[in-house]
Amino acid sequence: MKFAKKLFTKLHLIIAAIFLSIGFGIHYYNLDPLEVSLDDREHKLKNFVKPDKVLVVSFWASWCPHCLREIGKLKRFKEKHPEIAVLGLKVDEGSAETVFQDTTGYPSFDASMHGAQIMQLFGNYTAALPFTVILDNEKRKTLLGETSPEELEKNISAVQENIHKS
Question: Residue 58: its pLDDT value, please?
């Protein structure tokens, strides 16, 4: 029992040290999440951000029930708002085909190798899912947890207002 307690405590300390070192590296080196490769060198978030347009980036995992519900909401949102670009980033080793089969709702890339790093660069240091980021050229708005279509529309409207003010 004491061994398990010591191991559990050491494990927590190791995990905390990893997250702190990653956070320090992000802060020290001032890394840009838009520059991190997704599934290959050609796919970077910066390639999806268009001038004066909003991009919704949804981080998800195949094992996450809240993520799977949000994917359905985002598909319906995209149908209602075709002018808004939506991009899914899968951050686990699960199969995207089972989730995205027979759909043309929005693209999703496998960012499993760099998904946690990108989320941390956007401020999600715990890698909690689902995680949504609303981007334009200058501003970033992050939403943690399952997002409703109403909340998404409200936050996108706020970002769009900032675009038009600039």
Answer: 92
